[in-house]
Design brief:
- The complex is a heterodimer of chains A (about 110) and B (about 110).
- With about 110 residues, chain A is mainly β.
- Helices cover about 0% and strands about 55% of the residues of chain A.
- In chain A, strands 2, 4, 5, 9, 10 and 11 form a six-stranded mixed sheet that branches. A five-stranded antiparallel sheet of chain A has the order 1-3-8-7-6, with no helix packed on it.
- Chain A is globular and about 40 Å long.
- Chain B is mainly beta and about 110 residues long.
- Chain B is built from no helices and eleven strands.
- In chain B, strands 2, 4, 5, 6, 9, 10 and 11 form a seven-stranded mixed sheet that branches.
- The radius of gyration of chain B is 13 Å and the shape is globular.
- Classes of the chains: A mainly beta (about 110), B mainly beta (about 110).
- Chains A and B meet through strand 5, strand 9 and strand 10 of A and strand 4, strand 5, strand 9 and strand 10 of B.
Chain lengths: ~110, ~110
């Protein structure tokens, strides 16, 4: 089955850019997502990219997809303390509602 | 307000005592899923449903049952809970299997 990997922790200073990385194994993946989980809450969809795209920008968020290397990244520009959360990469393959999530990256924003 | 609700939010139970976690959505979504979240493992899909009376196994279905008798409800049933089912459970719904809306989570402890 699909395997999705992320690093566990990232610490950045407020105002800097954050880059969260994700790798996956199934080259037939169709949609790739980034979700944010704040403490004690469920997941919130931040953005997504279709597999035939290389890049998507949405305000402070930039998603880059390298299909050859099966590598997805999320860049957050001008990172704020409110961005502190766990970020999950998720990949859709096959059936419409089947998502495989990564382990999540905890982003810590320091002053 | 469009939302996914789960009950209970917290539950402590003993091994072998049957329990049901309810999930309800008011968005008329076709797709619903159950996930469990464990430290270091991210979210893993337990079961999903494409429509009423249509369910399928996710990655970790062992020890769980689901039913989808009505579009809005998708209960998760643990017939004989065991300590390894101690986890944080999330229900999610989606109109087209694309953007998923998550419930607030149910923290289950099995002693």
């Amino acid at each position: 089955g699909e395997d999705v990997e992320q690093s566990l922790f990232l610490s950045v200073r407020e105002g800097d850019s954050s880059v969260i990385n994700c790798t996956y194994t199934d080259s037939s993946s169709t949609y790739l997502y980034w979700y944010k989980q704040e403490p004690g809450a469920g997941l919130q969809l931040l953005t997504y990219i279709f597999s035939n795209m290389d890049m998507k920008q949405d305000q402070r968020l930039t998603v880059l997809l390298n299909k050859k290397d099966k590598h997805l990244s999320l860049r957050i520009a001008d990172t704020q303390t409110g961005d502190s959360a766990i970020y999950f990469c998720a990949v859709k393959t096959g059936t419409a509602s089947k998502l495989t999530f990564g382990t999540g990256t905890r982003l810590q924003v320091t002053l | 307000e469009a939302q996914v609700t789960q009950n209970p939010r917290y539950l402590i139970t003993v091994t072998g005592k049957k329990l049901t976690v309810t999930c309800s959505q008011n968005m008329n979504h076709e797709y619903m899923s159950w996930y469990r979240q464990d430290p270091g493992l991210g979210l893993r899909q337990i079961y999903y449903s494409m429509n009423v009376e249509a369910t399928d196994k996710g990655d970790v279905p062992e020890g769980y049952k689901v039913s989808r008798k009505e579009k809005r409800n998708f209960p998760l049933i643990l017939e004989s809970p065991s300590p390894n089912q101690t986890s944080l459970y999330f229900c999610a719904s989606s109109f087209d299997g694309h953007e998923q809306y998550f419930g607030p989570g149910t923290r289950l402890t099995v002693t």
